Amino acid sequence: MSRIRDPEVHVRGQQPPGGVERSRLRAGAAAFTSLVALAATGLVAGPAVGASSAGPCALPRTSAHHSLGLDTWNRSYPRPDQALDAVMIFLSFPDSEPLTTPADLAADHFPATSEYFSRASYGRFTLRPHPQPGWTPMPKESGEYDIRRDWDAGQRAAYLRDAIAAADASVDFSRYDIVYLVADPDAPGVDSDATKVVNLERPLEVDGTEIQRVVTVFERHPPDRNVLAHETGHVFDLPDLYHRPVDGKGDWDTHVGDWDVMGSQFGLSPDLFGWHKWKLGWLSAAQVACVQGADPRMITLEPTDAPRPPGGTLGTRLAVVRTGPDSVLAVEARTHAGNNADTCTEGVLVYRVRGTAASGDGPVEVVDAHPRTEACWERSVYPPLADAPLAEGETLTVPGTGVRVEVMDRTEADGWTVRVTPPAAD
């Protein structure tokens, strides 16, 4: 059973007890006000900027946390369509002598995480890590913070407050777009199940810049595979795609299985969905076929996991059919390329997207083209969806929509020719 990332948390609230020692920490009392209580709701949607992807198949962004609407971009999140700088701060505790080095822990995640995003973005995004060379001592023993999966809001606030204040003596936060706080994995009070992104309802002002979210890393050494890619996805406004059972028991991967790192970092096909790539700016409207009207449409899809041709441009990589005011069907080809080198099956993947569904509430659901079979039971996080894609010559009529997807052939150039028939044509 794979260990699933905990959902993000959001902090806001009251004045914390006691003062804060700071050298270059330019935050007034209100800055740390945001670090105490857990909020039950997501962040208020931030201001939008215009996006070239607006069109009849682009769902509108809503107030849902990490909405997959993509007609505008939430400016409270950095958009990964350029180079971004990330600082890694390594935290030690007075009750434990570290058994690893900051360099060892940095190598657990980089260059692998940067390479993941470079492949996923077709080279359009560069994540530049800046690991600090030494340990940053925390003022309290690790056990005093009571680090755990469902962390007490006050203890989490104290941890963040102490970590930022301790690091501020040697880190100029104004130089970085992303902050990773990496705890000594061998400290007795560190819980490896507590890794997550912490969103601040009110930004923390440090060194003349605003920190709106922090990635708190409590991973073992070596860590879970692709864990930092998953958490960094949240920094870019991507939602959790897994299903969390009410009692915490049962299958977590029923929504998307292996097919996106935001569902499971252990997936065999962890590349991001084409819809995510459109949202992040790695695909433009020119690479998206919007299927409208009543007539069937023939489309040749380049695999979303294939690299950009040397010196060339991307062709069509995503087909979309609008199925409602807040819903679409997305169609893309998946192969053994890029981040999906270990995939269980190749073929044409069909999935539903809902723009009003919040993170963790099923914003994406893969449609299983083979509901009576499963595959790769010894490797897949959810074998019933491991063989979800359509193979050459297969047809799927998507339940509840009337949309029909037929895979006509696979071209010599590794394109997948599909015929998409809207429901009005039947």
Write a concise keyword list for the protein shown above:
18 strands, single chain, alpha/beta, 7 helices, 426 residues, seven-stranded mixed β-sheet
Can you offer a commentary on this structure?
This protein is of the alpha/beta class. Helix content is about 15%, strand content about 25%. It is built from seven helices and 18 strands. Strand 16 (about 395) and strand 17 form a beta hairpin. It is elongated and about 65 Å long. The model is unreliable at about 1-5 and about 10-55 (pLDDT under 50).
How many strand units? 18
What percent of residues adopt helix (DSSP H or I)? Answer: 10-25%
Category from helices, strands and their pairing? alpha/beta
Can you give the mean pLDDT? Answer: 88
Strand order of the largest sheet: 2-1-8-9-7-5-6
The stretches of 5 or more residues where confidence is low (pLDDT under 50) are 1-5, 12-53
Distance between the termini: 43 Å
Which oligomerization state do the chains in this entry correspond to?
Answer: single chain
Shape descriptor: elongated
Strand content: 25-35%
- Give the ordered list of helices and strands: EHEEEEHHEHEEEHHEEEEEEHEEE
Sheet having the most strands: 7 strands, mixed
User: How many helices in DSSP terms?
Assistant: 7
Radius of gyration: 22 Å
